[in-house]
Amino acid sequence: IDPSVQYFDKNGFRHKLLGRYYSVHNNNSGNQSNDSRMTYTEYQIQKQFERINLVTTAGVVGIFNKVDAALYNNGIYKTRNLAGYLQADWKLLKRLNLSAGVRYEQNRVQSPDTIRIDANNIQVIPNGESKESKPVLRIGANYQIAKATYLRASWGQGYRYPTIAEKFISTDFSTISVVRPNPKLVSETGWTTEIGLKQGFRVGQWQGFVDVTGFVSEYQKMMEFVLAAVFPKIAFESQNTGDTRIKGIEFSVQGQGKLLGGTVTLLTGFTGIDPTYKVFDRNTLGSSSEINVLKYRYRKTFKLDVEYARSRFAAGFSTQYNSHMQAIDALFEGALPGVKSFRDRHNKGFNLADLRLSYNITKTLKVSFLCTNLRNEEYTVRPAQLEAPRGYTLRIDKKW
Hints:
This protein is mostly beta strands. Helix content is 6%, strand content 64%. The protein has helices spanning 164-168, 282-285, 330-335, 339-345; strands at 4-8, 13-26, 34-49, 54-69, 75-92, 96-110, 114-118, 121-124, 129-146, 149-160, 171-172, 177-179, 188-203, 206-220, 223-229, 234-240, 244-259, 262-277, 300-310, 313-322, 350-360, 365-372, 380-382, 385-386, 391-398. It has a 17-stranded antiparallel beta sheet, with no helix packed on it. Strands 11-12-16-15 form a four-stranded mixed beta sheet, with no helix packed on it. The protein has a two-stranded antiparallel ribbon with strand order 7-8. Strand 15 (223-229) and strand 16 form a beta hairpin. The longest helix has 7 residues, at 339-345. It is globular.
């Protein structure tokens, strides 16, 4: 249920009230049931000062959760997130846009005062309550260098408090594997900065833009889902794995226009990253790689999607390349038969291709043919789980 109200007063202020009530009840076997209620409320006020091209926005937010679930040791958990924020957007000298904002958050979790980790380990939470408050800041600028050339730069902080699932989930997903809680999990913080250049272009009746961005992100006490124990069962949990830094560059091209008697739409992009731990200890982190790289990351990704449409007919082709995932949990390579040999054979990454054709029989009836994994690539995204082979789909869409 999502009620909302928006009101403009005679002084030029815009008032907005947003709400949400979200209820989930999953009655599952295997000690995995869960019943949760979430309430979201937000009040926002905005004022435009047209004479000086300034827009100010302020607001307060409250998010309340209550969970009663077998997934969480059959306990009752309540969370409360309160926040206030202020942002200013200023257009200066017709070409320069400046933006700055601040947000202050307060988080509180109420839980049972004892949490069972396993048969031999119980964690105590004083008074069954944990809480924390922090501010985050952000600034940004966008400058129009020429008619279709824009330069931008930004810096912003990030803050994420652990969810109930990350701290308290407790379940078996096989006879030898469990997911266990970690009440000691604390929030992760960080910051991201980027600088980018966006250039528009036109070639005949075809136009689009090129965007190039360089960025750096740092995380302190980053949370990750990791292997925590191998005896008496293989146990996974969320942990603060340490401080990390991710440097990267993105390049994208988007465009649309008339070509060969029809309309051609193009979307393509490349992302390259260098994801590392600030302090790398392979044994402590349980990494399969001898080099300093975050687990389960692709250093290079490339995507391309192009479509040609003419009259009632359209044909599209897309492809995606992911480089080799250099680091996973070392246990998977040692304990699961075939994982290491598969990764050694498929150490060049994988390239997926999809094809689609469609024809509008009438204004309300369309038939489409889709082919996924056109090259029948053999690949995995997660260790020991082979992804789908080539697939064909015939689809009919009808509008009334």
